[in-house]
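User: C-alpha coordinates for this one?
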Amino acid sequence: MKKCLLVLACFMLLALAGCSLAPERPVTKDELYSTGIYNFYTIKESPESVLAAINREGEVILDAKYRDRPVFIKILALSSGLQVHVIEK
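Assistant:
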Protein backbone atom coordinates (compact mmCIF):
# COMPACT_ATOMS: atom_id res chain seq x y z
CA MET A 1 0.00 0.00 0.00
CA LYS A 2 2.81 2.44 0.87
CA LYS A 3 4.56 1.58 -2.36
CA CYS A 4 1.42 2.41 -4.33
CA LEU A 5 1.08 5.77 -2.58
CA LEU A 6 4.73 6.55 -3.26
CA VAL A 7 4.32 5.77 -6.96
CA LEU A 8 1.16 7.90 -7.10
CA ALA A 9 2.93 10.80 -5.36
CA CYS A 10 5.85 10.60 -7.81
CA PHE A 11 3.47 10.56 -10.76
CA MET A 12 1.59 13.61 -9.45
CA LEU A 13 4.88 15.45 -8.94
CA LEU A 14 5.93 14.77 -12.52
CA ALA A 15 2.54 15.81 -13.87
CA LEU A 16 2.56 19.09 -11.98
CA ALA A 17 6.17 19.84 -12.92
CA GLY A 18 5.22 19.74 -16.61
CA CYS A 19 2.60 22.48 -16.30
CA SER A 20 3.52 25.96 -17.43
CA LEU A 21 3.36 28.73 -14.86
CA ALA A 22 2.75 32.44 -15.16
CA PRO A 23 5.93 34.54 -15.23
CA GLU A 24 7.28 36.07 -12.02
CA ARG A 25 6.91 39.57 -13.45
CA PRO A 26 4.51 40.56 -16.24
CA VAL A 27 5.88 40.73 -19.77
CA THR A 28 5.66 44.19 -21.35
CA LYS A 29 4.79 45.17 -24.89
CA ASP A 30 8.35 46.48 -25.39
CA GLU A 31 9.77 43.05 -24.50
CA LEU A 32 7.41 41.41 -26.99
CA TYR A 33 8.36 43.86 -29.75
CA SER A 34 12.07 43.41 -29.02
CA THR A 35 11.78 39.78 -30.19
CA GLY A 36 11.09 41.05 -33.72
CA ILE A 37 8.35 38.53 -34.47
CA TYR A 38 5.94 41.21 -35.69
CA ASN A 39 8.61 42.48 -38.14
CA PHE A 40 9.47 39.13 -39.72
CA TYR A 41 6.24 37.12 -39.47
CA THR A 42 2.59 37.70 -40.35
CA ILE A 43 0.65 37.05 -37.15
CA LYS A 44 -3.14 37.28 -36.88
CA GLU A 45 -3.27 37.70 -33.10
CA SER A 46 -2.89 41.20 -31.71
CA PRO A 47 0.08 41.98 -29.45
CA GLU A 48 -2.34 42.66 -26.58
CA SER A 49 -3.91 39.20 -26.80
CA VAL A 50 -0.46 37.58 -27.05
CA LEU A 51 0.70 39.49 -23.95
CA ALA A 52 -2.42 38.48 -22.05
CA ALA A 53 -1.83 34.80 -22.87
CA ILE A 54 1.88 34.95 -21.97
CA ASN A 55 1.19 36.70 -18.66
CA ARG A 56 -1.57 34.22 -17.80
CA GLU A 57 -0.02 30.93 -18.95
CA GLY A 58 3.70 31.64 -19.25
CA GLU A 59 3.77 30.53 -22.87
CA VAL A 60 1.86 30.93 -26.11
CA ILE A 61 1.87 29.18 -29.50
CA LEU A 62 0.97 31.34 -32.49
CA ASP A 63 -0.07 30.53 -36.05
CA ALA A 64 2.06 32.66 -38.35
CA LYS A 65 3.41 32.93 -41.87
CA TYR A 66 6.95 33.60 -43.01
CA ARG A 67 7.17 34.41 -46.73
CA ASP A 68 3.94 32.48 -47.44
CA ARG A 69 5.15 29.45 -45.46
CA PRO A 70 3.02 28.51 -42.44
CA VAL A 71 4.92 28.25 -39.15
CA PHE A 72 4.22 27.95 -35.44
CA ILE A 73 5.86 30.43 -33.09
CA LYS A 74 6.26 29.33 -29.48
CA ILE A 75 7.05 32.09 -26.98
CA LEU A 76 8.13 31.18 -23.45
CA ALA A 77 8.35 33.70 -20.61
CA LEU A 78 11.50 32.95 -18.63
CA SER A 79 13.05 34.87 -15.77
CA SER A 80 15.84 35.87 -18.17
CA GLY A 81 13.36 37.20 -20.77
CA LEU A 82 11.31 35.88 -23.66
CA GLN A 83 12.46 32.81 -25.56
CA VAL A 84 11.15 32.35 -29.12
CA HIS A 85 11.07 29.07 -31.04
CA VAL A 86 9.94 28.88 -34.69
CA ILE A 87 8.63 25.53 -35.92
CA GLU A 88 7.68 24.81 -39.53
CA LYS A 89 4.31 23.17 -40.03
